[in-house]
Each structure stands twice: as C-alpha cells, then as structure tokens.
C-alpha cells in the first residue's frame, strides 16, 4: 500500500456562540484537512486547527509545512509502515506541531484501516465511550451563569469555566455559576496563563473558602513559569493541571520532577499527534499521575482521534473534547459519535471517517 498523494483542504464551521478565553476569541472552527491517499484506494484523514495564539501555527504555516517538507517525504512510502512514517514525519521539519499532528492522525488512520480495526483497539483499549465536559466562555457573570445552567439542563455533569481575562471578576463569575447550577455539578476552571503566581494563590484561596468546590485549575500562570506554577501547586489543595506548559514527554518529565503541577493536559496539536501523546501518558503513569485530554477547539477528525486515545488509556480520567459540540453543524460523515457529554468511538476501521461536506480542497 504505497502513499500516492497527500491532499489538503480547508473547512470552516460556525460556532453556536463565540468562544472566548483569556488569550483569544473565535466564532468558527477553521481547520486544515489532510487526506493521505494510497494506490490501494485507502485514505487516511487528519486535521489541524490554526491556533496561532497558542501554537504559533497559522493556516499558511500548516499548509506550507505540508507542501514544502512533509508531502515530498511521504510520497512513495509504505502506508502500513506506521513507525517508519512517523519517524520521518517528525524529522523532516522542525516545529510545526499542528501540521505534524494532522499527518500523524492521518497515518494512524491509514494504518488501522490497513489492519481492519478501530484505532482504539489497536492501542489496547476496550471502553467504547467517554464523557466530556463543556466549556463556558469568558463573559459577564450573569451570562456565564446562564450558559452553565443551559449546559447542565442539556445533560452535562462537568462544566469547564474560562477565567483569567479579568481577574477582578473571576470570583464573581464562579459565584454566579455555582449559585445557578448548585453543588452537584463538577466545575473545572482554566485561567489560560491569565494570573501571576501570587494572584493565583489568592484567587484560588478565596474560591476554596467560598465553597465553590473546584475539581481542578488549568494553567494558572505563564507557560514558561514552572517555578511560579510549582509555587501555586504547593499552596493550594485544588489540583493544578499544566496545559500550555506541556508540549512533549520531556516537558511532562520536567513538570513532574519539579512538582510544578499535579496533572498534565495533553493536546494533540501541541505535542504533534498521537505518538507523542502516548509517550506523555506513559510518563504520567510512571509518576502515578492521572491525565487530562483536551483540544484546541478542533473539528471532528481531531476530536475523533483524541477520543480513540482516551478510550485506550485508563490514566486518562478527565476529558475536554467539546469542539464538535460547540459547532452549529457537522460536515463530517462518520468518526466518533458526539451526543452531548457522551462520546462514543466508532467500531469502523481506523477513525471511521467516511466523507465530508463543504470542504475546500486545494
């Protein structure tokens, strides 16, 4: 099964509501789609969102990395040689983790299809469904409280709250949300690097004393400030999750060695795909740490790949894969089945992606 082509396209899917964090605001999922074609007719699919504010990868950068470096390297190779293809993928260009993630996903999809099994089973998984949280964007406290209440009424048991944009309002935001949804719903908060270490300790202490019952806090301080994050971790009983700080297995090793966080949040676009994500899980297991699996407001192909990963590893206990649920429509036929908080993997070979609507192929 020889790789005969690497085709790229773009897709834009409007969101039901603008997505706002401490670092960006977007109104649609705009992703690069990748199709790895073979002489057998089998096609592996991948996807990458251009998240310049976080990964530094724009649409042009993703397409350029594929056109100039990745496609020429993969053409003519055996599509069933997953390990060899992944090795070449990682070495053919420096950085460009989003482009690499798109191809990593597509190559895994191609490999699993060649074997005739769903990807999660080839990873050793047995659970067929996972439960995700849903994200409430940063807005005024009353609007966030209503959004959280709407989510609970739709069946979500875990709500992820974006904070860190205006720290003076974060306490009021959480107070309004907790009063609206009651005490039976888990609340996670994500500061997206929005606080200083001292500010984080003070805010978390106030929230804890107020009885907000927070399950965890993601990335309270700047990504490179591991000393600052360790300072926060040592001074709060709320579990701290590294997000923007973790890009690789070596990052995870350093974070756990320095006790900078209690957990890490794996995102395929940061680490370059499923292969490195699995290595991060292995490092976490060595340190006895549970794992959160997140996403970058990604489309259904990325999200399906993440769900297959989550279904394969018991260490992955927190799921934040709600991108497709925030979209106003679903242009992808096949893949994982997103029904509110419950996401079910497909038992079709590979990722189970079958066809597309409204793709602008290049």
TrEMBL record:
Residue numbers binding substrate: 24, 135, 160, 295, 297, 320, 322
Residues making up the signal peptide according to the UniProt record: none
Molecular function as annotated in GO: metal ion binding; racemase and epimerase activity, acting on amino acids and derivatives
Active site (UniProt): 162, 267
Sequence ranges assigned to domain Mandelate racemase/muconate lactonizing enzyme C-terminal in this UniProt record: 141-239
UniProt entry keywords in alphabetical sequence: Isomerase, Magnesium, Metal-binding
Binding sites annotated in the UniProt record for Mg(2+): 190, 218, 243
Cofactor annotation: Mg(2+)
A GO BP annotation: amino acid catabolic process
EC code(s) of this entry: 5.1.1.-
Membrane spanning residue stretches: none
Listed InterPro entries: Dipeptide_epimerase (IPR034603), Enolase-like_C_sf (IPR036849), Enolase-like_N (IPR029017), Enolase_C-like (IPR029065), Mandel_Rmase/mucon_lact_enz_CS (IPR018110), Mandelate_racemase_C (IPR013342), Mandelate_racemase_N_dom (IPR013341)
Cofactor binding note of this UniProt entry: Binds 1 Mg(2+) ion per subunit.
Pfam families (UniProt xref): MR_MLE_C, MR_MLE_N
Family: Belongs to the mandelate racemase/muconate lactonizing enzyme family.
Record protein name field: Dipeptide epimerase
